[in-house]
Structures are given as structure tokens and as C-alpha cells.
Amino acid sequence: MVVRLGGYARISLDRTGEELGVERQRHDYRQVAGVRPGWEVARDYIDNDVSAFKRNVVRPEFERLLVDLQSGVIDGVIAYDLDRLARQPRDLERLIDVFEDRPELVFCTVTNDIDLSTSDGRTMARVMVAFANKASADTGRRVARKHRELADAGKNGGGFAPFGWKDDRVTVDPVQAELITKAHDALLAGTRLATIVIEWQEKGIRTSRNTGKPITRVALKGILVNPRLAGYRAIKGQKHIGADGKPVMGIWEPICTPEKLDAVVAALEGVKTQYKAYNMSNNHKYLLSGILRCSECGTRMMANMRSSWKEGSKGSRFTYRCPAAQDGGCGKVSRAGEPLDQYIINLIHDAEARLKAPASEPTEWPGAARLVEVEQEISELISAMNGKRISAATAIAMLEPLEKERDELAYERDRNTIEQVKNSAATVELSEEFERLPIERQRAVVMKHIKAIVVRPAGRGARKFNPDLLELAWSA
Ligand SMILES: [Zn+2]
Q: Domain range holding 455?
């Protein structure tokens, strides 16, 4: 009887030294299988460069091995050692489940460290994996604790010297510090961050990490608001708070005062607030927020969810409103959101369709009149023949080309019909495409065509959506 084994091998690049190459593992387990009568390695399951220790890492071949063991595609598993197969208790338990389900399965390792097909072996394996797991977790905790101790003492962590300091991470680098100071002053004077990014890029300034790429907006912002600049010890960009509840101060020379750093942070945050005030934010959740204008006061109208609206209830889910007086509007104009959105979406679809396919307007098929004529001639000929007004031979001779023309025209007409159906389907496709776009893209499409929509008051009791109360300012 042949025992068909699955050979499992794994290599992870995060550990060095004792790491066994996949080829070596495979060679070894195949050799062991080779000396056992009837054993053959039916398939190799090889996971490359994935750590069995890290949680939430999917090992596709390991998953497949479990399935194949469970379904009987293979009769057992052979690997170099238990460590290759499972370093997480969770993975081990899944493997053990399969072996408990199918006690006839064979288990073998090259180092002969464990046998999952026996109850004792399973207990041993659980202990081994638990220890391996704890050792790795301890290493992680040790590293974290070391970082914390350093931070509590206001000492430097590891890694690259931060921008602004020399390699000792204590002495200020005068050139870099001056760049930071100038950038701070520019920001406080109202220069946009984007402008400073371009300036630094043009000067060829690199981060300490120096990836060889131009400095990014994110990197520059990180440099300019680094708490370290004002002497604060920071972890991942945040001030580190000590046991006494106060920010821990570092042992290095500061580059600016805490007050200036706060001002810079506020200036950068302020940009967001400013955008908000002008409704320029790209965070709108409704299609026409800020695009609609109140006809009475000109204020941009915003959307509100209708508090009374529930799943299944009638009417629109939300309403566009002119803001109340305290928010800068007159509060006099509002409009149900959904029918208004739908009306504008339809207009946009038409506008898009005109842009995309100027010639594909549905037109009447030009052969229609001729087809009617030909069919008329044919029926006249047949009735003449039946009434013996002309001979059958003459009638048939005349009928033939007419019937051919009729068939050709009918074919052409059908082709034309299909084409038209396709065209209208394309329009449907366009609308489905629009629905799938994220809201900011939908808004961009609307704004491409329409600059603003002025909404006039609907008057009391006017329930039905009336497009006549809208004035559209189309983009040129
Ligand atoms: Zn208003």
C-alpha cells in the first residue's frame, strides 16, 4: 500500500543564521520518506517568506495542506520539524483537529521531534509551541520596555538622527535647524505648506532616512511639528507623558520654543478650519451640498438628514437647507434632497451622453419607407398573379429581385434595431457607472457641468418637486 504524503516546507526571511533553505528542507524530508517502505511525497507545500510566528499572516500552502489532509487527498504530512509547520498555538490546534478527525493519518519530521498522530505527541507539541510563542513574545515585550525606559529618561531612541540634529541626536545641526526656523516663520506668516514643500524639493533637501526621493508633504509636516523641536521627548510623533503626568523633556538642544511649536501646529490646523468656513472641504456626503444656493440670500445650501425618516418611510431621506441666520444664511429655503439629486443626475447624464456620443442620437432608420414600398409591390404582384392578370412566370421573375431587396432591407432594419438597443444600453451603463463613483467624484462630475444651482422658495404646502424653481448656472 502506498502512503501519499504532503511535504511541507517554509522559509521566513525575518530570522537569520539557523534558517534552513526550502530546498534543503525538501531534500531532507524526501530522503527520510524514501527509506520508509511504501511512502512517497505526493506533493510539496511550500510557503516562502512568511513567518509562522506572526499572527494574522496567511500561509496559503499551509491552508491547502490542511484541506488536503482533511479531504483525503494525502495520507499524512512530513516536514523538517514542528517549527516549520506551526509556531502559533492556533495553527497547531487546527492541525491537531485534523489528526484527531482522521487517526489513520501519518505524521513525520526529519528531526523526529514530534508525532502528532499520537496523543502524547500532541501534548508535547502544544508545550513546544507554547514555549516558542512565549519566547518570541518576550523578545517583543523586552524591546518595547527598553523603548519606554529610554523615553521616560528623556533619552534618545534608536533609528536615524531626527532632522535638525547631528548624528549624536543631541547637538543641533545648524543648517537643518535654520531651514526649520525659516519654514516655521513662513508658515506663521501665511505661506502654504505646499509652497514650502516645493521650495525644499527644489533645494534637494532630503529626510534623514534619505530614500533618495524628493521630500514629501507628509515628511515635511512631520519635521515641522515634531514635538522634539521644542525639547519634548516624543514617541511616534506624540509628546511622551511621564509618570508625573507632565511631558518628558529630552536631553538634547531644542530648536524652537514650545509656544512657537504650538503656533505652527495651530497654523497648519487652521488651514483645515478655513476651508470648512468656505465650504470648500471635500468631505461633503451629499451630491449637491454647497453647489446649491439660496435664491433669497445667496448662501450655499447644505444637507441634513430628516430626523423623522426611517427605513420604509415615505419621502426624501434628507433635505437641503439654507443655513439658519446664526450660521450665515436666511433659513428660508429648503428642498427635499432625493428628487433634487435625481433631477440633477438625469441632467448630468444627458450632458455626459452628449459629450461622449454626439452622433449616436436615436434616428429613424432611413430604409423604412423603401421597405414599405417593396412590400406593397410584392403584394400587388401576387394579387395580379392570383387574379390571372399576369402570367405566373412573369410574376415570379419580377418577384425575385423584390423579395431579395425586401429580405436585405429587413436584415438592415434588424441590425439597426439592435444598434439602437445597444446605444440605449450604453446610456444605462453610464448611469450605473455614475452610481458606483465615490461621492467626491460624483460631485466633481456635477461641477464639471454646473457651477451653481439657485433654489427658489417652493411656497407653503408645495409638496411635489418642481424643477421650474431651479436656476442652473452651467459651466461654459
Ligand atoms: Zn437663504
A: 292-358+437-474
Q: Is the pLDDT at 424 greater than 80, yes or no?
A: no
Gap from CA of 331 to ligand 1 centroid (Å): 5
- Expressed in angstroms and rounded, the spacing between residue 317 Cα and the centre of ligand 1 is 21
CB 17 within 8 A of CB 4: no
Please say if the pLDDT value at position 334 is more than 70. Answer: yes
Q: Please provide the size of the chain in residues.
A: 476
Cα 276 to averaged position of ligand 1 atoms, centre (Å): 19
Please tell me the pTM assigned to this model.
Answer: 0.35
CATH number, domain of 36, equals: 3.40.50.1390
CB atoms within 10 A of CB 61: 18
Q: What is the average pLDDT score of the chain?
A: 81
Compute the distance from residue 347 Cα to the ligand 1 centre, in Å: 24
Distance in Å, CA 456 to ligand 1 centroid? 9
On whether residue 143 sits in a domain, the answer given is no
Cα atoms in the 13 Å half-sphere on the side-chain side of 410: 8
Which position has the grid cell 505661506?
Answer: 191
What is the three-class DSSP state of 280?
coil
Residue 372 three-state SS:
helix
How many whole angstroms separate alpha carbon 24 and alpha carbon 248? 51
Q: What is the dihedral of CA 303, 309, 313, 319, to 10 degrees?
A: -20
The predicted model gives 221-232 an average pLDDT of: 91
Residue 328 Cα to ligand 1 middle (Å): 9
Cell, residue 100: 484527531
Q: What is the pLDDT of residue 18?
A: 44
Q: Is there a domain that residue 154 lies in?
A: no
Question: CB neighbours of 393 closer than 8 A, spacing ≥ 6?
Answer: none
Convert the pLDDT of each residue in 63-84 to its tens digit. 999 999 998 899 999 998 888 8
Amino acid at 455: V
How many CB atoms are closer than 10 A to CB 157? 14
Parallel, antiparallel, or unpaired for β 470-474 and 318-321?
Answer: unpaired
One domain, residues 213 and 254: yes
Domain harbouring 237, CATH code:
3.90.1750.20
Say if residues 124 and 212 touch (Cβ distance below 8 Å).
Answer: no
At residue 431, φ and ψ (nearest 5 deg) are -70, -35
Are residues 400 and 451 both part of a single domain? no
Inter-CA distances, 35 with 87, 104, 175, Å? 28, 20, 70
Q: Is the pLDDT of residue 472 over 80?
A: yes
Amino acid at 454: V
pLDDT digits (tens, 9 = 90+) for 170-193: 899 999 999 999 999 888 777 778
Look up cell 497654523; give the residue.
267
Question: What is the 332 CA–ligand 1 centroid distance (Å)?
Answer: 5
